[in-house]
Design goal:
alpha+beta; 8-stranded antiparallel β-sheet; 4-stranded antiparallel β-sheet; 35 strands; globular
Length: 718
């Protein structure tokens, strides 16, 4: 026991009876279960109140707070063990006066360490306490909990007229089960199992009492089970998690540079990609983002696969498998489904099951279908896996048929969208907020709307499909697709180019009037190759001018446009994946100075974000000396295609392509000032592997082959 007298007499002693709270969060995920936690490991109702553990679209734990004698611990540090996807936090006690017996425990006496991970519908937490004082102490640890069983769309802000029924808690000696009977007649449960019996347990809190001998450790564990009844041994789950993530990292191409900050950005991005991969019946699919978009999105999965294609092609194969299996077969206006169309998103949860939201299985995107075809061609070029292409060829042909029969609503040769479902998305390109397509005076465009970048996606899709058709012996189809692609390219140039702007219009509205607005959408036309070469240079000059380029990246809308707002979702913000696609387009045309400008801006931005994790988007304010980029308040972090940005930017810089049958090509490789050397190891092509070192010199970049297995040809074009 300690008495307070000696400490109270110290006039310089700063009493600390409660820890600070901040809004920074840490994220865990495995398959359909993810958690958003405060940095100390709690689940708190702060900010957007998005913290919690979610399972299959429902929040199963909405409060989880650790207290020592009822006091919030003092935060020391926390972080993620990337190799095994474990959250780890170190805490200590505040100044504690235990009423009744006069015991005073000075702050920093007790070390509290907690770690947690998610695996197969469970969250496992381990807590240990060590007394670094000289006297034994008896202390109570409280765990306060709550399960609101809110659908993720409720957490996002949608109000429901009716909800299901909370079930009476089932309380045992060392466990408690909280339950909810949804309006969809599905019972959802959260079961908390404690490795030591609490001295008190009710439907709000578990209290544990520990006698802490100096320098000795007291430990216990909690298993949180979501819609599960069978017990899972945490050590076995940890071994499986370790093995999975180690295998994933080891199988990917290994990348290391002379810049430790870049290495940290790369490592976080790779871990986030692997964390977002979710096992499905059709392979592992990169879910879009946590917390709002932890679901399969067609467009997001395809672009993530493209970003990762050069170093981890299996992701693309699984994405193509999943999208083939979920391709629309019938006409269903309520879900914007049409035969051959590729999925927009797939949701689980009570509101999706009841049809309160249309996104249970929703097809409202105009670009997923051509991008699906384009990814198939890109995957073949990378892998040479023609046998797999044969298995999805019927799906690719149905997607091509959708483009011609349903995508071109008015028969003018361009692909448009107009929602069929009254509750579906108004805008159905990647900028799908309701105000993202507008005229120069700020008026919103009325549909059907033909977006400029979507015409580029269709051009690339038909070009790639022509190549695949030729390989599969369908010569007439191949010839037809090539011809159709060139006709589209010519008509696109004459219709979308606005000469006095020196730019492509973002879209044609329903009256075929061009929306004379300069947006980053036009940059995708460079990426897909639909833009004519002479106009690419004018586009590029504008895209890297101050109106677009903030210093951190290319904005979605030029700052001179009527609806420009650097704090908006799509009308002036900066999206990392958008910049990556544009930068890869720059590389294809040899515009390496523009590419390096974008790469450097995005890299500089990454240094300001927690754990070097690029968010879904950030604000488009101009870069100010001494300040970092401004966060967008509800951006997903992690977000799959933001995580994939670094891979595509690096590929663009290296001019790297992998061509059939066994060739690695570096076209005009360059390295930014912050990268002196780049080491690539275990880059797989066909049956072989190859290791490189690329070094930046004064006037060029050298490529050295360090190791090679198999018959691989290397071509460096300078």
């Amino acid at each position: 026991m300690m008495d307070t007298t000696s400490h109270v007499k110290d006039e310089y002693y700063i009493l600390a009876t409660s820890g600070r709270v901040d809004l920074k969060t840490l994220t865990l995920k495995h398959n359909e279960t993810f958690g958003v936690f405060a940095r100390m490991g709690d689940i708190l109702k702060l900010g957007m109140e998005e913290q919690g553990i979610y399972h299959q679209g429902t929040r199963h734990l909405s409060k989880w707070e650790l207290r020592l004698e009822g006091k919030r611990p003092l935060f020391l540090s926390s972080g993620m063990k990337r190799e095994s996807n474990i959250l780890s936090a170190d805490l200590t006690n505040p100044d504690i006066l235990i009423d009744g017996n006069g015991t005073f425990i000075p702050r920093d006496t007790i070390h509290c360490h907690r770690s947690k991970f998610i695996w197969e519908g469970n969250c496992f937490e381990s807590i240990y306490l060590i007394n670094f004082g000289i006297d034994p102490v008896v202390i109570r640890l409280h765990l306060f909990f709550e399960a609101d069983f809110e659908d993720v769309f409720e957490v996002r802000g949608i109000k429901r007229e009716r909800r299901g029924e909370y079930l009476p808690p089932e309380i045992g000696k060392q466990d408690i089960t909280l339950g909810y009977q949804g309006l969809d007649n599905q019972k959802r449960t959260t079961r908390l199992v404690f490795s030591v019996p609490p001295v008190s347990l009710d439907n709000e809190a578990a209290i544990f009492e520990f006698k802490l001998i100096p320098k000795c450790r007291e430990a216990f564990r909690i298993t949180m089970q979501f819609d599960r009844r069978e017990d899972v041994y945490w050590k076995h789950a940890l071994v499986l998690a370790d093995e999975k993530y180690k295998t994933m990292r080891d199988s990917a191409c290994q990348i290391c540079t002379t810049n430790e900050q870049f290495n940290a950005w790369f490592s976080t991005s790779l871990s986030d990609i692997h964390m977002m991969l979710t096992d499905t019946r059709h392979g592992s699919y990169p879910y879009a983002g946590v917390p709002w978009f932890n679901a399969a999105f067609g467009r997001d999965g395809i672009i993530t696969a493209l970003e990762c294609l050069w170093f981890e092609p299996q992701i693309a194969r699984d994405v193509l498998s999943y999208l083939s299996a979920t391709q629309a077969e019938t006409l269903n206006p309520e879900s914007d489904a049409e035969p051959g169309k590729i999925i927009h998103e797939v949701r689980f949860g009570e509101m999706a099951a009841l049809g309160e939201i249309p996104f249970g299985k929703y097809y409202g995107s105009v670009d997923s279908t051509p991008l699906f075809i384009y990814l198939a061609g890109a995957y073949y070029r990378r892998s040479g896996d023609l046998e797999f292409i044969k298995t999805i060829w019927p799906h690719l042909k149905r997607a091509l048929q959708w483009i011609d029969e349903y995508g071109d609503i008015d028969g003018d040769g361009f692909i448009e969208y107009g929602r069929r479902s009254e509750r579906g998305l108004i805008n159905q390109g990647w900028k799908d907020s309701k105000d993202s397509v507008f005229h120069s005076d700020g008026r919103l465009a009325e549909g059907p709307i033909a977006l400029c970048e979507v015409q580029g996606y269709v051009y690339a899709a038909k070009t790639e499909a022509a190549m695949l058709a030729d390989l599969l012996g369908e010569r007439e189809l191949s010839r037809h697709l090539k011809q159709a692609a060139e006709i589209l390219r010519d008509r696109f140039e004459t219709t979308f180019w606005v000469d006095d702007l020196g730019f492509y219009a973002i879209a044609l509205d329903g009256k075929k009037q061009p929306c004379r607005v300069r947006t980053s959408n036009a940059g995708h036309c460079i990426f897909t190759g639909i833009a004519s070469e002479e106009r690419v240079y004018r586009l590029t000059e504008t895209l890297i001018s101050d109106e677009f380029f903030s210093g951190w990246g290319i904005r979605t809308v030029a700052s001179s446009e009527a609806k420009y707002n650097p704090m908006s979702y799509h009308n002036g913000s900066i999206w990392p994946h958008d910049n990556a696609l544009i930068a890869l387009g720059f590389a294809k045309y040899g515009l390496m100075d523009a590419l390096l400008k974008v790469f450097t801006g995005i890299f500089d931005a990454s240094k300001y974000f927690d754990q070097y994790r690029l968010p879904e988007l950030f604000c488009g304010f101009h870069r100010r000396a001494g300040d970092g980029p401004t966060l967008y308040p509800v951006a997903c972090m992690p977000q799959a295609w933001a995580s994939g940005t670094v891979f595509m930017l690096l590929q663009a810089c290296l001019g790297l392509t992998l061509e059939q049958p066994n060739r690695v090509v570096f076209r005009h490789p360059v390295l930014p000032d912050f990268l002196k050397e780049v080491h690539l190891a275990k880059l797989k092509i066909k049956e072989g592997e190859i290791d490189f070192v690329l070094r930046r010199h004064r006037f060029n970049v050298s490529v050295e082959i360090v190791r090679k297995t198999g018959d691989i040809e290397v071509l460096v074009i300078k």
